[in-house]
Amino acid sequence: MNGIRDFIWLFKQSLDLPREAMVVTMALVIIVATTWFYIHIIRRRSFKKTELLTLIPFITMFILLLWGTLFAHQDSQSKAPQWPSYVNLVIFTCHIPICGFIIWKAKGFRLLAVEISLLAGWYAFWALFTAQMSVTGNWI
Q1: Which pLDDT tens digit goes with each residue over 69-99?
Q2: Spatial contact of 131 and 7, defined as CB atoms under 8 Å apart
């Protein structure tokens, strides 16, 4: 692997969703944008720095892709080790308590926090899918 170029390629692969998944993605983006518009424009609630906490779950996606880049299996002659794929699953599973903590701390904008966590989880799922293919060497 060539470091940053491979990470960017893996990142692009995880965002290259099938058409059916794009419908879900666009629906989640529209829901998040509508809720943000309602909270900040219609209710005239000022922006608080604590709202930036809702972006923390997106870090899971980058960690998964970084792991997939660092432990990519390229040797077609041998079988890939299993432990990097298990670590991928643990990283993805850590997304749930992180989102729960963010939602708990999001007093006053919990609906927005839930929606952003769902969007981050959706992207983390596709990042997991791509990272698993990279780590195991089985590309679909």
Answers
A1: 888 877 766 677 788 889 999 999 999 999 9
A2: no
